[in-house]
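Key idea: predict the complex, not the pieces.
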Amino acid sequence: MQFGVFSVGDVTTDPTTGRTPSEAERIKAMVAIGLKTEEVGLDVFATGEHHNPPFVPSSPTTMLGYLAARTERIILSTATTLITTNDPVKIAEDFAMLQHLADGRVDLMLGRGNTGPVYPWFGQDIRDGIALAIENYHLLHRLWREDLVDWEGKFRTPLQSFTSTPRPLDGVPPFVWHGSIRSPEIAEQAAYYGDGFFANNIFWPKEHFIRLIDLYRRRYEHYGHGSADQAIVGLGGQVFMRKNSQDAVSEFRPYFDHAPVYGYGPSLEEFTEQTPLTVGSPQQVIEKTVRFREYFGDYQRQMFLMDHAGLPLSTVMEQLEMLGGEVVPALRMEFDSHRPPHVPDGPTHAGLRAAAEGQVVEAEIL
Amino acid sequence: MKQRRLAVVSGGLNEPSSTRLLADRLATAATEALADLDVESEVDVVDLRDNAHQLTNMMLTGFAGPELATAIDKVVKADGLIAATPIFSASYSGLFKTFFDVLEVDALAGKPALIAATAGTARHSLALEHVVRPLFSYLHAVVVPTTVFAASEDWGAGSAGEALSERIDRAASELARLVASDQRPAPVDPYDDVTSFEDLLGG
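Result:
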């Protein structure tokens, strides 16, 4: 089981002080959060991709490359990489390069983004969102697996005898998560390729995601990648903790009340009741998160949103200390003790390489 | 005996509400008209006033709170819809529109619907034809030809009140004939009836 932190990279005014960080501060804060993720014993740091204010992370592999040089252990990932408006050739190249620099500590989550105008800004049409995700990934998948690619599709210029360089490290493409909040087509896509499915459940009730993940698991089995409970599932979470839960509630409430996405809407109490958000003691976070496996089955990756809505970096750092120090060790023990042996652990480069070599050995024996 | 469910959406804001009063009369008339066609019916009423906070929350968060989710479910799964709104500023009320804005695309597609409205004077009556009907046409509901408008005077004695009763009965029987029909589209569940990847890839 892998635990990590994902950041949207929003520049948001701290509602308690009225102070807005500069882009430079926010970018450096994201790096500091990435470094802290490793320091406190978590497994994954992931950055969003956005092309409009108030978000800073437009260039994820630049940031992740810098983090690769300054970390030893964590997996560097995205949440998400826009498969719709980025050229799949450039994604293939950027992430293969990052994979080499980071000695394989790289995977990525593909998504369609949440901002309509990004499509026209990059020369695409939002009505083609699903079709772009399907076709672009089909090309990306081939570019990492075939040395010479001939390609003709609807959305990008054709390729003849094209080799995407560098080739993936050890011939093992980066693991891909397909991220979705609501589209059954994306769950179907993840199932077809036997890739991971990340249900970004942090802002919505679980009932919807139970159906979406169930669809992915069922179709994963249908396409012959393994049994439904072996499908690779990732989930989000959002927490704010203090030793005493009432302190957590009173400190977080102004951030909640003014937050992008849900601010000025439901009360903190309603939202924590209806979504994965937990505001309380570390023990409450543990109790709520362990229930995810009851709803969604044994899963492989749990990401936490820790740094949005204008929370100051010093507070986020304290949160990460608690997450790594108290919460995740308890969650690891709990999840690992329940996971049956045939259900795979979180995907790593080493694991994928061993699996690929195993297949070669098997083929030679036959 | 055939079974059908009707959902009534009332956008009235006062308690008691004349919009709700009109909606209830339509529901009763529709139930009777269905009974004449040997159809047994049950009626679920959704008062939007009770869901006002959760509707605003859903506009902001994209998901329905528990009570609103139940209300939406009743409307989406109903065999027929009776929708009544007060006319404000030449149109449906904002709250009424909000309810239909938060439904999934195609949630009302093919659904028989009767539209109704209330206002202080009959000067507002054509808002039903010029504003409310296009909304439901856009949502692909099947709106019956007769719409029912009630101004304050229609609740009194005399010819106005009789005319209202006649319109209620006419609209209700138009709705009942559609609701009783066996040729209704089967609901599609995108999480159960998945499009296979080969079809997606084939574009």
